[in-house]
Amino acid sequence: MVKKNKLLKLGLGTVQFGMKYGISNSEGQTSKQEVRRILEVARRKGIRYLDTASQYGRSEQVLGQTMPVGHQFRIITKTPHFKSKKIEQRHISQLKKSFEQSLDRLLVDSVYGLMVHNAEDLLVPGGENLYQAIIDLKKDGKLRKAGVSVYTAKQIDMINSRYDIDIIQVPVNILDQRLIQSGHLSDLKKRGVEIHARSIFLQGLLLMRPDELHSYFDPIKRHIQTYQNEIHSHGFSLLSSAVQFVKSIDLIDKVLVGVDSVVHLQEISAAYNVSIQKSQQIDFLKYAVDHSDFVDPSQWKI
C-alpha cells in the first residue's frame, strides 16, 4: 500500500481563494495578493494540479488573475449543481455556458479536467445527456479528462455501471477510510481511473483539539483524543500524520490540500516530505469511523 515518493502527489484545492471555507477557518477568504504568492511557491515546489469550481465563489476569477505567466498548472473545474429530478436540455445549455464562463474567468482555452460536481446529476433521468455533453467538450479539445466528484460507495457503483470516467474525486482521510476498506479505490484503479483524494483534513477537524470541536462531535471526541495522543507519542504533528496517511496510499494519484497562506503551504510541504517509513509505526486503520454522520461534512448538523 505504501510506495516511495517518486512523483509529487500534492495538488491545491482552491475553495479558500474564493470564499470562506472549513470549520477551522478563522481567517476567511484568502487575499488575492496571498494567492499570487501561494501559486508562485507551489510552482517552484512542483505542484501542478489546481482544483477549482464555478461554485467556489470567486475562485476561478482569482486564479485567472494570479496564475504566473506561462504557468504549467493542470486545472480541474466542475459543473454547476443542477438540483433537478431530471436533466433537461436547459441544463445541458447551462453546463456549456458555465464551462465557457469558467474558461473565460481562468483565462485559458482548455482545462485538464471537468468534473460533475454533484454525482446525483448523472444518476437522475437524463444524466446520460449531461455526460455526453462533457464528452463532446472533450472531443472538441476543451478538456482532457471527464470525471465526477463523489461522496459514497453507492454513488461510485452507480456511476461505474453507467459511464466510463477518466477521473474521480473522493473523500479520504484518517477518520474516513470507507472507500479503502470497501475495495472501491482498488476497483477504480483497475478500471484505469485517475483518483484524486480530497478532504484529507476533514475540513480542518483532524487538526483541531477535541475541546475545540462543536458539541455535535461529542460521540467521537474520545476517539479523536486517543488518536491524537498516539500521534504525539510518536513525535508526529497532526498535520504530518494526516498528509502522510493519504500520501502512502498507492491507489491515490493526487492528494488535494487547501491552503490559505504561503506559511500554510510551506507547512504542508514539509509534512509531505516526512519519511513515509516513519509513519508506518502507526496503525491508522483502527482510527477509521464508520458513521457517515461524522465523516461526511454534507451531513454535519452544526
- CA radius of gyration: 19 Å
Question: The biggest beta sheet, please?
Answer: 8 strands, parallel, barrel
Low-confidence stretches: 1-6
**Strand proportion:** 5-15%
Output the strand order for the largest sheet: 1-2-3-4-5-6-7-8
Coarse shape: globular
Order of helical and strand elements: EHEHEHEHHEHEHHEHHEHHH
Overall number of strands? 8
Walk me through this protein's architecture.
It contains 13 helices and eight strands. The chain is an alpha/beta fold and 302 residues long. Strands 1-2-3-4-5-6-7-8 form an eight-stranded parallel β-barrel, surrounded by five helices. Strand 2, helix 2 and strand 3 form a beta-alpha-beta unit.
Q: How are the elements arranged and paired?
A:
Layout: E1 10-13, H1 32-45, E2 49-51, H2 59-66, E3 74-78, H3 89-106, E4 111-116, H4 120-123, H5 127-139, E5 143-149, H6 153-162, E6 167-171, H7 178-181, H8 184-190, E7 194-198, H9 218-233, H10 238-247, E8 254-258, H11 262-272, H12 276-279, H13 292-295
Helix pairs in contact: 1-2, 1-11, 2-3, 3-5, 10-11
Labels describing this entry:
13% strand, 302 residues, alpha/beta, globular
Compact description:
41% of the residues lie in helices and 13% in strands. It has helices at 32-45, 59-66, 89-106, 120-123, 127-139, 153-162, 178-181, 184-190, 218-233, 238-247, 262-272, 276-279, 292-295, and strands at 10-13, 49-51, 74-78, 111-116, 143-149, 167-171, 194-198, 254-258.
